Amino acid sequence: MTYHIFELRQYLLHPGQRETLIELFDREFVENQEAVGMWVVGQFRDVDRPDRFVWVRGFRDMTARAQALAEFYGGPVWTQHRDAANATMIDSDDVLLLRPAWPGSGFAAVERTGPPPESLVAVTLFHRPTPIDADFVQLLADQVRPALVDSGARPVACLDTEPAENTFPALPVRTGENVLAWFASFPTTAHHRTYAERLEAMPDLLARLSGPPEHLRLVPTARSALR
C-alpha cells in the first residue's frame, strides 16, 4: 500500500511521563491504528528534550485520513486508553501535515521486527518564507543529500508541507507554514554533528530559509518501524 500523507507529531509531556506513554503506545496504539488503515511509521524519544515524544503516521490520502482517524478515535481502544494517554500530555497540537517532496521520496515499507539498532533517526526541518518549489527541492538534492551521505547517514524520506485543509479538525495541525522535512538515519550523534556543521556552511541554502535548520535527534522505541 502506498501512503501519500504523513503527520509528524511532537508531544510535550508532563515531567517523567515519557516512558509511561511509550509503554502504553507501543502496547495499544500501533496495530490498532494500522487495523483501521493508518501506518505507524515510527515513534521516538527526543534526545535533546526528555519530555518530548515524537511519532510519525501515514495515510493513503486526505479522505482516507479522515475516515481512519474517525474510526480509531471513535473506537473502543482509544476510548479505553485515552484518559491514561492524555494524562501524560501537556500539549499534543504540534503537528506538521506532510507529503512526499517528489515522487518516491516518502517512507518505504519496513518490517517491525527485532530490537532497534543503536542508531539515531534525525529530522531536519527547513522552514521557508514561501511555499516549497522545485528549485528549492533541487538545491537540497544537490547540497543536502551529499552532506548526509558524506557524513555516514542513510537518507530515509523527504517530505514537504501538505497544503490541503485539515480533514479531521478535532486534531489540529500547524497551518500557514512552509516546511521541508528530511529524515535520515545516522550511526552516531557524532556523524549527525558533522552533517549539521556542513549545513551551517551552505550560504545558498541558508539564504532561502526563514531561520536556521531545525534538528530533531530521535531514538526509536522498541516497536518503531522506522529505525
> How far apart are the first and last residues' alpha carbons, in Å?
20 Å
Q: Helical content, roughly?
A: 25-40%
DSSP E strands, number: 8
Q: Major β-sheet, in short?
A: 8 strands, antiparallel, barrel
Overall SS class: alpha+beta
* Percentage of β-strand residues: 25-35%
Question: What's this, in brief?
Answer:
The protein is an alpha+beta fold and 227 residues long.
Write the layout of secondary structure elements.
Blueprint: E1 5-13, H1 18-28, H2 31-34, E2 39-46, E3 52-59, H3 62-73, H4 76-86, E4 89-100, E5 120-128, H5 134-150, E6 154-161, E7 178-186, H6 189-199, H7 203-206, E8 214-220
Antiparallel strand pairs: 1-3, 1-4, 2-3, 2-8, 4-6, 5-7, 5-8, 6-7
Helix pairs in contact: 1-4, 5-6
Overview of the molecule:
The protein is of the alpha+beta class. It has seven helices and eight strands. The chain has helices at 18-28, 31-34, 62-73, 76-86, 134-150, 189-199, 203-206, and strands spanning 5-13, 39-46, 52-59, 89-100, 120-128, 154-161, 178-186, 214-220. The protein has an eight-stranded antiparallel beta barrel, surrounded by four helices. α1 runs antiparallel to α4 and α5 (134-150) packs across α6 (189-199). It is globular.
